[in-house]
Amino acid sequence: MEIVKVRNYDEMSEKACDLIVEKVNKLDNPVLGLATGSTPEGMYQQMIDSYQKNKVSFTKTTTFNLDEYVGLAGNNPNSYRFYMNEKLFNHIDLPDNRAFLPTGDSDDLQKECRDYETLMYKAEYIDVQVLGLGLNGHIGFNEPGTAFDSRTHIVDLDETTRKANARFFDSLNDVPERAITMGIETIMESKKILLLVSGEKKAEAVYRLVYGETSEEFPASILQKHENVILIADEGALSKL
Ligand SMILES: N[C@@H]1[C@@H](O)[C@H](O)[C@@H](COP(=O)(O)O)O[C@@H]1O
């Protein structure tokens, strides 16, 4: 795992954006894996800036998001589809029909999981997957205990995860109890992984990620086995290494 130490959140966002833009400009049909949460917001803003300055175009790009809450339609402001539209998709030239997220309000969730895998397979999998890190080591919504050989599936969210994400909702009660997420094996098939971490509150999780044993109890620890991971983290996040 390559560790890139940056001073702060803004530098992390810039660095991550530069790597994405470089890849998008280099590949004929780039496939990006995207994440939600607070961490990648700055990177998305940088990507919009790069697009507006004509440094990059996304017309040939396909994107797959990691996850979506079960039960939330795309026009629900708390859905990840809504987040992605607001924070990135509405501001760049990525074609609508190539920006994929799982459909959280699908009538047949198992079929939705299978269909999502098929779409990724047809796109020949992800060139660069952006990941954030949950406090309990979750990646996407793969909570502790998720099998390392899991594919896209439905998860019951940990109480700690629901609490951590409650800040985006009116109340904890409104936070869905389930989500659809790419599985660990799906994520590990990405050719390159860009893991972004900022802030001291993630320092313990970063320590376990880098030095802890590889265990399903701490899902992000599997990344030690991936050949092409870049961890971009600021001083706070790296303060326990
Ligand atoms: N499903 C998302 C993850 O993809 C994200 O990486 C994580 C960290 O979020 P944040 O970046 O807000 O700390 O939380 C959420 O639960």
The ligands found in this model are: 2-amino-2-deoxy-6-O-phosphono-alpha-D-glucopyranose
Number of helical segments? 7
User: What is the β-strand count?
Assistant: 10
Please name the CATH architecture: 3-Layer(aba) Sandwich
Defining traits:
alpha/beta; seven-stranded parallel beta sheet; globular; Rossmann fold; three-stranded antiparallel beta sheet; 7 helices; binds 2-amino-2-deoxy-6-O-phosphono-alpha-D-glucopyranose; 241 residues
Describe this structure as you would to a colleague:
The chain is of the alpha/beta class and 241 residues long. It has one domain (2-197, 209-234): Rossmann fold (3-Layer(aba) Sandwich). It has seven helices and ten strands. The strands form two sheets. The chain has a seven-stranded parallel sheet, with helices on one face. Strands 4-8-7 form a three-stranded antiparallel sheet, covered by helices on one side. Helix 1 (9-26) crosses helix 2 (41-52). It is globular. The site of 2-amino-2-deoxy-6-O-phosphono-alpha-D-glucopyranose has 14 residues, from helix 5. 2-amino-2-deoxy-6-O-phosphono-alpha-D-glucopyranose (GLP) binds at residues 35-39, 66-67, 132-134, 140-141, 161, 165.
Draw up the topology in text.
Blueprint: E1 2-6, H1 9-26, E2 31-34, H2 41-52, E3 62-65, E4 67-69, H3 80-87, E5 99-100, H4 109-122, E6 128-131, E7 153-156, H5 159-165, E8 178-181, H6 184-188, E9 192-197, H7 203-211, E10 229-234
Parallel strand pairs: 1-10, 2-3, 2-6, 3-5, 6-9, 9-10
Antiparallel strand pairs: 4-8, 7-8
The chain binds 2-amino-2-deoxy-6-O-phosphono-alpha-D-glucopyranose.
The site of 2-amino-2-deoxy-6-O-phosphono-alpha-D-glucopyranose has 14 residues, from α5.
